[in-house]
Amino acid sequence: NRSRVTSFSSKAVIILIGCVLAVALGAGLLILMRANDPSDEIVRLQSMMQSLSEVTSLGSSNAKSPDVIKLATDASILVNGDISTLKTALLSTTISPNQTITSTEKAANKRLITELKAAATDARFDASFVPALSTQLEATQRQVAIVRDKTGKPMIKAALTTINDHLTSLLASLQTITL
């Protein structure tokens, strides 16, 4: 009778250990899958690009130097095209292509827009716009790299390559501007 209890207890312990290991393995796989999920990073990239679009649009209408006007206009065209390219690539995923700008990005963008509008009224727009645009382009390029490293979708990678090429081109153009 006692060997029956010991046998039952041993089986129960083995089953219990097996269940705990299975749950731990499942939780570990979920965490690993979530760590490589680019959804949050893509939403952040979309927000950054929306913000960049607003800044370049402001630059197109407020810049004084012909070089800065051309840069802002080219940047606006490229960024808005890149937003469309990314939206098209996202149609093949479960990520919404129509994300609105995040509250964090909205607050930072509002501060920047306010600063640039103040600079426009003080006739120092170009001197404020060029470094602000450079900072935004570099930050967006870093975010593109993060998303590209996390995604496995060929359409998204292709869109990100195009976006990165445009950002690189705009940053190179910024280097040629003298104020």
In brief, what are we looking at here?
84% of the residues lie in helices and 0% in strands.
Strand segment count:
0
Radius of gyration: 25 Å
The helix count comes to: 6
The proportion of strand residues reads under 5%
Unreliable spans = 31-35
Helix content: over 70%
Largest sheet: none
Q: On the 0-100 scale, what is the average pLDDT?
A: 85
- End-to-end distance: 95 Å
What global shape is seen? elongated
List the helices and strands and how they pair.
Blueprint: H1 2-35, H2 39-62, H3 66-90, H4 103-121, H5 125-150, H6 154-175
Attribute tags:
about 180 residues, mainly alpha
Describe this structure in words.
With 179 residues, the protein is mainly α. It is built from six helices and no strands. The chain has helices at residues 2-35, 39-62, 66-90, 103-121, 125-150, 154-175. The chain starts with a helix and ends with a helix.
